[in-house]
Amino acid sequence: MKTIRSYVAGGWAEGAGKAQTLVNPATEEPVAEVAAGPVDWGRVVAHARTRGGEALRALTFGERGQLVKALSKLIHAHRDELIALAIANGGNTRGDAKFDIDGAAGTLAAYGEVGINLGKVKFLVDGEAAQLTRSVRFVGQHIAVPRQGVAVHINAFNFPAWGMMEKAAVALLAGVPVITKPATSTALVAARMMELVVEAKILPEGALSFVAGGVGDLLSHLEGQDVLAFTGSSDTAQMLRGQKDVVAQSVRVNVEADSLNAAVLGRDLARDSEGYALFVADVLRDMTQKAGQKCTAIRRVLVPDDMVEAVREDLSERLGAVKIGDPAREEVGMGPVATKKQQEDVRAGIARLREEADSVFGGDGSVAEAIGVPKGKGFFVSPVLLQLRDGKTATRVHAHEVFGPVSTIIPYSGEAKDAVDLVARGGGGLVSSVYSDDRRFLGEMAFGLAPHHGRLFLGSSKLAGHAVGPGTVLPQLVHGGPGRAGGGEELGSLRGLAFYLQRTAIAGDKPILEALFGNKPDDAA
Ligand code: NAP
Fold it and tell me: Is the distance from CB of 86 to CB of 47 less than 8 angstroms?
């Protein structure tokens, strides 16, 4: 069986601790094992900071863009192999696996282009110079330079490929070396990607390190130039961002956590309209893609009172056609959730939501028979569609993220104000979507929801066939959200670089500042 190793301080390191077995969540057969520690984390951080950091900072943004682009090509060249691993270890259908792996390659490609377009510069000029007093000589200019530390990336189990590479793309482009840690249960894809990166010798030594298993006392070695980017549950986030050394050293922290993403149906959309069909398709995709284990998946479905019956019928009919089973089989539309623990958590979450909602499809989530799987095996959960009994008083649906194929219909009046109020009860989200052709309604919703979200998706009839759904995170747009969603922000083209750069205001004599930081990228290197 394959043993997943760490790649740290310029070499592969196999842990000597108790091994954790990774399984195929459809069959429960072992696929790999991970043995963590002991690792000298102080040495690992120092090696990345000096070897990796110095090598990356010696390059221009354009040169780093070329490296990031080469990583994209590498992942794409091994697409089929990685898809097979995602199916075996992640419970992914082929479509789910492509979403993850193509998402990784696509984000790397997009950031490669961002870097190449920045060209021969080693720092960024931020905005125009400003005259600071009555004297025209005294001006101030903001610039942004790479931080001289490491970026520790800790990722969630649901996107082992995209999670690792969307973060690495931005940090490497910014000139900051990365120490990346995938979630252990689905680490096989990330581990193979790391092997490919090492074999291909694309990156300078120390630019990318890989941690298999636990991180030991790694975080206690972080200092003021380092950053920590975490994706996962709110509980883990809270614990990590509160670590003594992280707080004491003012380590910059970005958190991507839970989110109770909503889809709001406008009352103007007739059942036979394209906008309505788009809404149904997006809810269905988000419930079943990756068995609902997407941080951006629609959890709350707001439907005007008089349209609830139609929506319930249409979603139930479509959910009834989804074939559940071993995702390695072509006919299967939804695989298992990733782990036994995940299955238990989802079942418990459904039970909790049923205290205030009726199950209108999927009962308690049990699956009597999964296609191509020995009876009793696999971590399967049926898609479950719930409907709130009382939309006004319910609380659990706005507070508890069930990380599986589960969504809840929330009846509402059809008024924008009421919909905004209900969605805002989620306490801050990654993304919500609104479906309507009524521009006034869309406007009220957009301005009402914007303070509570990192991203909004406005789905109108004419957009049908032209857009990816709200669940797709795109490198051009920011990803993250306030409150419950972690308060973080990633991606968004150039915006994503800010986390890894130090913005510095420089005040001085205008001709000197113009000579040093003039907006002529090719001379500034
Ligand atoms: P999790 O249990 O919080 O784990 C996330 C990561 O933290 C894993 O790599 C885990 O490693 C690591 N970790 C756990 N304890 C740690 C510790 N004491 N020190 C250092 N690292 C530690 O979350 P998950 O179950 O993987 O992911 C599901 C959650 O992630 C959901 O709530 C979902 O909403 C959220 N999520 C959010 C986004 C987003 O972009 N906002 C994206 C995806 C998922 P081990 O696996 O080795 O324990």
Answer: no
Are 144 and 97 in contact, with CB atoms under 8 Å apart?
no
Instruction: Say how far apart CA 251 and CA 245 lie, in whole Å.
Output: 8
**What letter does residue 67 receive in the DSSP assignment?**
H
What's the confidence (pLDDT) of residue 524? 41
Q: How far is the CA of 155 from the centre of ligand 1 (A)?
A: 6
Residue whose tokens read 């990031």: 68
Contact 277, 310 (CB under 8 A): no
- Per DSSP, the three-state class of 449 is helix
Burial 365-379 (b: 16+ CB within 10 A, else e): bebeebbebeeebbb
Pocket test for ligand 1, best of 233, 344, 431, 478 (most atoms within 8 A of CB): 233
Rounded to two decimals, what is the model's pTM? 0.95
Share of the chain above pLDDT 70, in %: 98
DSSP letter at 354 equals T
Q: 96 CA distance to ligand 1 centroid (A)?
A: 19
Distance between CA atoms of residues 366 and 384, nearest Å: 9
Radius of gyration of the CA atoms of the chain, in A = 24
d(CA 179, CA 366): 39
Ligand 1 proximal residues by C-beta, below 6 Å? 154-158, 181, 183-185, 214-215, 231-233, 236, 240, 256-258, 295, 401, 403, 430
Angle of the 79-90 helix axis to the 160-174 helix axis, nearest 10: 130
Tell me the torsion sign for CA atoms 296, 192, 40, 47. negative
Query: How many other CB atoms are there within 10 angstroms of residue 244's CB atom?
Result: 9
Asked whether the predicted pLDDT for residue 519 surpasses 70, the reply is no
What is the spatial distance between Cα 403 and Cα 18, in angstroms, rounded to a whole number? Answer: 28
Beta bridge partners of 133: none
Facing residues of 35 across strands?
Answer: 19
Instruction: Report in angstroms the alpha-carbon separations of 318 from 218, 262, 409, 467.
Output: 47, 19, 15, 21
Instruction: Enumerate residues 6+ apart whose C-beta is below 8 A from 348.
Output: none
Cβ–Cβ < 8 Å for 473, 158: no
Beta bridge partners of 457: 433
Render pLDDT for 297-307 as a digit per residue (tens, 0 to 9): 999 999 999 99
State in Å: Cα 307 to ligand 1 middle: 37
Show which residues are catalytic. Answer: 256, 295
Q: At 525, is the pLDDT very low, low, confident or very high (cuts 50, 70, 90)? A: very low
Kindly give the pairing relationship between strand 384-388 and strand 357-361: antiparallel
| Domains of the chain in sequence order | 2-257+488-523 (3.40.605.10), 262-474 (3.40.309.10)
Classified as helix, coil or strand, 234 is helix
Q: What is the CA(58)–ligand 1 centre distance, in A?
A: 33
Give residue for tokens 């249960």.
Answer: 185
Pocket probe mutation, ligand 1, options 153, 295, 346, max atoms within 8 Å of Cβ: 295
